[in-house]
Amino acid sequence: MRSYKIGVIKGDGIGPEIIDEAIKVLDAVSVSEGFNLKYEEMLLGGSAIDETGVPLPDETIQGVKKCDAVLFGSIGGPKWDNLERHLRPESGLLGLRKEMGTFANLRPAMVYDELVNASSLKPAVIKGVDIMVVRELTGGIYFGQPREYDADKSYNTMVYTREEVQRIAVVAFDIAMKRDKRICSVDKANVLEVSQFWREIVEEVAKDYPEVELTHMYVDNAAMQLIRDPKQFDVILTGNIFGDILSDAASMLSGSIGLLPSASTGKGVGLFEPIHGSAPDIAGQGIANPLATISSASMMLRYALGEDTTANKIDDAIKKALAEGYRTGDLGNYDAKEMVTCSEMGDIVADYASR
Ligand code: IPM
Ligand code: MG
Question: For 1-105+261-355, CATH number?
Answer without folding.
Answer: 3.40.718.10
